[in-house]
Design goal:
Helix 10 (182-189) links the parallel strand 4 and strand 5 (194-197). The protein has helices at 23-34, 49-55, 61-72, 79-87, 95-104, 118-132, 135-139, 148-151, 158-167, 182-189; strands at 9-12, 109-114, 144-147, 175-179, 194-197. A 5-stranded parallel β-sheet has the order 3-2-1-4-5. It contains 10 helices and 5 strands; from the N terminus they run βαααααβααβααβαβ. By secondary structure, the protein is an alpha/beta fold. 44% of the residues lie in helices and 11% in strands. The model has no long low-confidence stretch (mean pLDDT 91). The chain folds into 2 domains: 4-21 and 92-197, HAD superfamily/HAD-like (Rossmann fold, 3-Layer(aba) Sandwich); 23-87, DNA polymerase, domain 1 (Orthogonal Bundle), CATH 1.10.150. Pfam families: Hydrolase (PF00702). Keywords: Hydrolase. This is Putative hydrolase of the HAD superfamily. InterPro entries: HAD-like_sf (IPR036412), HAD-SF_hydro_IA (IPR006439), HAD_sf (IPR023214), PGP-like_dom2 (IPR023198).
Length: 208
């Protein structure tokens, strides 16, 4: 059995680890908004290139919205309707999860590494303010936070892991990566990081 207490550094994913996520809600919202079959473009396991592009900041919010209209052949859908459907997967930040992670950060170096995009992050920032009082209250718990669309890189590509490792002079063998997506776990393993794959929407982080 792995002794997770031996790791000096921990890199946390965000959605599905510290933020409740339900991909089915966005799949269902797109289906209701765009029609049957629209869910095929997006899921946790795979997604169309349009979603990959916004996650690395390669297209603007407006270009993403227009891309959704083109993808699903629905020209009459408003920006607000698209944003509501796109954000439907986002849940809350459970306070007890967050407080435990803060406590872990008192004895170890902790980082946040998230595949996200500007539309989602705006809504997540509002959730931080609702749940924790401010964005700073959340982000200051980590030595550094990394959002894919600001880096121009995304998991599971090795370059994003290399960026975190090199910028913070981390030894992979002393570093644990926690994520709820198996493809991201596999990417981290290729660089020699310790890994823990979380499953389910409600997960106990007391193993740390």
């Amino acid at each position: 059995m792995t002794n997770y207490q031996n790791y000096k550094n921990i890199i946390f994913d965000f959605g599905g680890v510290l933020l409740e996520i339900d991909y089915r809600k966005t799949e269902d919202a797109f289906c209701e908004l765009m029609g049957d079959g629209s869910h095929a473009g997006f899921s946790q396991a795979s997604q169309s290139d349009l979603f990959n592009l916004i996650e690395v900041g390669a297209i603007s919010n407006d270009a993403f919205r227009q891309g959704l209209r083109d993808l699903f052949q629905k020209s009459d859908v408003s920006d607000r309707e698209l944003d509501l459907a796109w954000n439907a997967l986002l849940g809350t930040i459970p306070r007890d999860w967050f407080e435990h992670v803060k406590a872990v950060g008192e004895t170890r170096r902790i980082f946040l590494l998230s595949n996200t995009n500007a539309i989602h992050l705006d809504e997540v920032y509002r959730e931080m303010e609702r749940s924790l009082g401010s964005v700073e209250a959340f982000e200051s718990a980590f030595e550094k936070v990394y959002y894919s669309h600001r880096l121009g890189l995304r998991k599971p590509h090795r370059e994003i892991f290399e960026t975190v490792i090199q910028e913070n002079q981390l030894d992979p063998k002393d570093t644990l990566f926690i994520d709820d997506s198996i493809q991201h776990i596999q990417g981290a393993k290729e660089l020699g990081l310790g890994t823990h794959h979380l499953t389910g929407l409600i997960t106990d982080l007391q193993f740390l």
